[in-house]
Amino acid sequence: MDESLTFASLGLTPSLLQAVAETGYTQPTAIQAKAIPKVLAGRDLLGAAQTGTGKTAAFTLPILQRLMAEPRPTGRPGRPRCLILAPTRELSAQIHESVLTYGKHLPLRSVVVFGGVNINPQFAAFRKPLDIVVATPGRLLDHAGQRTVDLSGVEILVLDEADRMLDMGFIRDIKRLLVLLPKARQSLLFSATFSGPIRALAREFLRDPESVDVAPRNTTVQRIEQSVYMTEQPVKRALLAHLIKDNGWGQCLVFTRTKHGANRLAEYLDNHGISAAAIHGNKSQAARTRALAHFKSGEVSTLVATDIAARGLDIEELPQVVNFELPNVPEDYVHRIGRTGRAGSSGQAVSLVDAGEAKLLSDIERVIKQRIPRSTPERFTPPARAEIEAPRPPRPMSRARGGYAQGRGAGGRSPNARSR
Ligand code: AMP
Fold first, then answer.
1. In a domain, 418, yes or no
2. What is the pLDDT of residues 19-36, one digit of tens each?
3. Which of 5, 10, 56, 191, when mutated, tests ligand 1's pocket best, judged by the most ligand atoms within 8 Å of its CB?
4. In a domain? residue 218
5. Ligand 1: which residues within 6 Å by Cβ?
6. What is the 3-state secondary structure (H, E, C) of the chain?
7. CATH, residue 368
8. pLDDT by residue (tens digit) across 238-283?
């Protein structure tokens, strides 16, 4: 990328440039450089980019600027001018954080809504004037059904992580919402992958879109040092504990295939002297946010997550990712390990693979077009069969430290929890 490229050269106004400078960014990322001028020009956009590329700022900054264009209609109660849809509550919350960060010098009002929590504070938020709504599709549809939100004034629509929204079965909710929006609007669609259904969605909802494509996924993969340990399923957790201790991994994101597996593994690690927490869809929003905060602050060194829960988590420069089990879909492997190679830094990705996962491993190697080197653990003695067969009895996870309060902007209290 052009080293001399600045945010100012992309056409952003002084209050946005100030907010960007205050976050410490010195140069736009590739997707920001490509997308910002196009969105400012009012074009529809089809963006191929995954989390970690800076895509949130790539759409948030120009949208904020467009919403400030004169003459500016006043934001009306429950009638937003911009709608941003995202698949999970975490991602919605993070996008809303970005809206607040980049828009802090602007008089725009925003709210985030997602499912699983008391809907009443959300009603209250929608009774105030607002410009921007960030939402998961299910809960927003509930509001639309109850007429607490009026989508007929939406000028700009964003579908973020569209592929994941489809994977999570949101397509019908999205389509029901989109018929409530005016036809004349600007629409942006971001997705890491472009399957047939995503292309169909794009054809249906974008008008003559500009395409931006950044970081062909393999370049991310190539920056990451990958290795595979061939092992047996019952030995994996002891091997993982050994690797964490032996290598002194201070901040490590571990992926498991199931929520139950995430809980059990976090508990095992915690019982073996490694501070760990699990993050997945069955946990309350407060528990997830707390686990993430403890992980970011270093209080918890190991975060055990399922793919869906981890998707969109804003964790910067993660040095270490572990696949406790390989994902069923090779693309998820790329997503998972991509968490280490963020913002130009390199990372390490380790996979623990048993014989039953050999086929998944070869599928992954075919997709990433490289063979992942096999490693053998040093100084590791597999536990005796007795310990494998008689794991310690489960102990309740004790991470209930302090309360959780969040929420700024028009929402007052931030609604949280389960996204539908
Ligand atoms: P995203 O892809 O939107 O999830 O962003 C990934 C991470 O990159 C976030 O932690 C952002 O704060 C960070 N980021 C976004 N834009 C820039 C930039 N221009 N320079 C450095 N970091 C950035």
1. no
2. 999 998 888 988 999 999
3. 56
4. no
5. 25, 27-29, 32, 51-57, 314, 316, 343
6. CCCCCCCHHHCCCHHHHHHHHHHCCCCCCHHHHHHHHHHHCCCCEEEECCCCCCHHHHHHHHHHHHHCCCCCCCCEECECCEEEECCCHHHHHHHHHHHHHHCCCCCCCEEEECCCCCCHHHHHHHCCECCEEEECHHHHHHHHHCCCCCHHHCCEEEECCHHHHHHCCCHHHHHHHHCCCCCCCEEEEEECCCCHHHHHHHHHHCCCCEEEECCCHHHHHHHCEEEEEECCHHHHHHHHHHHHHHHCCCCEEEECCCHHHHHHHHHHHHHCCCCEEEECCCCCHHHHHHHHHHHHHCCCCEEEECHHHHCCCCCCCCCEEEECCCCCCHHHHHHHHHCCCHHHCCCEEEEEECHHHHHHHHHHHHHHCCCCCEECCCCCCCCCHHHHHCCCCCCCCCCCCCCCCCCCHHHCCCCCCCCC
7. 3.40.50.300
8. 999 999 999 989 889 999 998 899 999 999 999 999 999 998 877 7
